[in-house]
Design goal:
single chain; mainly alpha; Helicase, Ruva Protein, domain 3; Zinc Finger, Delta Prime, domain 3; two-stranded parallel sheet; 2 strands; flat; disordered N terminus
């Protein structure tokens, strides 16, 4: 849309000004999504003497199938056809991430020779859903390095920064409800048990852990910051990915300080 185009043109102008007065031996690496041949940012990097554009293509279904077969074969494993189909469908286009998931699967099947559909389903979940959950949980836990990896994966998978912010806000709202109940004298477990919709076992365990990092004042401040960041994602001149990543990093650093 027009707003997004204006944002890209402004970023291109900023980069062009930087390249014209490049200080010393400075090197900047810019990650971008799929840029059309007519993209102003891509055209600038392809034509400027001080820049270069390097294409990095996502794995297609055929490429991913080859990666899966090679990785499993090196571990002495042969995937059954339905297992291979499931893995090809549920792993993303980021080869590093795919290999990480496959390494987990080979560890899970150590000592075996075949990979069944049940094995694949038990080790590798839905990539899109899992990548979003990884972002949210890493931020709330204060695992900053894991957050960086999970956020990059979500962007590679085509997730929307605004969508991530909204999901993050919903989770922080639940933590805020728990924190308010705890501040009023309830135990964390009782507060989590009163949530609607209810938190099932895995989510309840996460909330119980995270409630220690997010007492009411911190949860209130973080919720306000996230809502502000969501609005900025839709209105700021900066790319929404930048605004989202900045807010998530602030949340993660806040939680990390509480963990110490």
């Amino acid at each position: 849309d027009l707003a997004a185009r204006c944002q890209r043109l402004r970023l291109t102008a900023i980069l062009k000004g930087f390249l014209e007065g490049l200080p010393g031996d400075a090197v900047i690496a810019i990650e971008a999504g799929d840029l059309a041949a007519k993209s102003s940012l891509r055209s600038l990097c392809e034509s400027h003497a001080a820049a270069v554009a390097v294409p990095c293509y996502h794995d297609s279904g055929a490429d991913l199938g080859q990666v899966i077969n090679e990785t499993l074969r090196k571990a002495g494993l042969t995937p059954e056809p339905d297992a291979l189909a499931y893995l090809t469908q549920h792993l993303g286009g980021d080869r590093m991430m795919s290999r990480s998931e496959l390494d987990k699967l080979t560890l899970y099947l150590h000592g075996q020779t075949r990979v069944t559909l049940a094995d694949a389903q038990g080790s590798v979940g839905d990539s899109a859903v899992q990548s979003l959950d990884d972002v949210i949980q890493a931020a709330l836990d204060g695992r900053t390095e894991a957050l960086d990896l999970a956020f990059r994966r979500a962007m590679m998978d085509g997730e929307s920064p605004v969508g991530i912010m909204r999901m993050m806000i919903r989770q922080m709202q639940r933590l805020h409800l728990v924190a308010a109940q705890v501040a009023g004298g309830k135990s964390a477990d009782a507060a989590i048990g009163a949530l609607r919709p209810p938190a099932f076992k895995r989510d309840a365990e996460r909330l119980s852990r995270q409630a220690r990092f997010w007492p009411l004042p911190r949860a209130t401040a973080a919720l306000g910051r996230l809502m502000e960041a969501e609005a900025q994602c839709k209105s700021s001149a900066l790319p929404d990915e930048v605004m989202c990543a900045r807010a998530l990093l602030e949340v993660s650093e806040n939680a990390r300080r509480q963990r110490r």
